Amino acid sequence: MPSSASAREQQPLTQIVTNTSAETKNKSYGATTKRDLARRAFKTMDVEASKKCHQNAALERHNFGGDRYIKSAVFGGLDGIITTFATVTTVAGAKMSSTVILILGIAHLFADGISMGLGDYTSTVAEQQLVRQERKREEWEYDTNKEAEIEEMVDLYEKKGVSRADAQLVMTTLAKYKDPFIDMMMFEELQMNPYDDDDALMGGVITLVAFVLFGSVPLLSYVIALVPGIEFSSDSQLHLSLGLTALTMFILGAVKGSYIDNSSYQDPSWWLSGSGSGRSSIILF
Questions:
Q1: What digits encode the pLDDT tens for the residues 138-159?
Q2: Other CB atoms within 10 Å distance of the CB of residue 155
Q3: How crowded is residue 41: how many other Cβ atoms within 10 Å of its Cβ?
Q4: What is the model's pTM?
């Protein structure tokens, strides 16, 4: 008997949207959101499902925290596993013992992980401070010389191909509302995201944890070699470390692909993304 999850996967997308509309009146779904359904509609080019997603008020847009920190997790994980494996291969090439390789690997793992976490934190804080400072400047210019700000936006959109008359109409209307107008200026004129309010500390912690977690994988074969009764040659330890590294990069790529593409295990996109990461590790090393 198929599970409820698999049965849901087999339903037409338009039916899933309709069912979710009724179900969300009584409870909230964490996995089936408007964004998930809209992505699936785009992936299958299902126009009717896309229309229902946008017409359905029950499937309002949510801002999930996981979206914000996926960059930190992937960046920290990839950097951790590659950096540690590079350390392992360098020290192993010098024909040092497993204990020395493990000690140096752990030292590099935590030192580089802390450095990466602090780097993520400080860079995010600096970027947010810059955005806030530029917003204050734009607000002051709006208050003191609104007409010049409108003219700047009109010129910008005219360069994008919008007629001057239409650009003036749109910008003059939007300028009646200070915050939306300044948001538009931040995006279009300064190329800055006015909604970038990510928790810098959380991003740094996620980078650190991902770095240490994934970066420890190349060291596992050397940990196993220290277990009494287990015999591993130095070449076998290195080969096992390479295999674990490639496998972990495949898993990381597959999870990333599945998360971004909103694909199930039946969809080949997660496999392609994972295999791409795995092949990259083998070619790189």
A1: 999 999 999 999 999 999 999 9
A2: 12
A3: 22
A4: 0.68
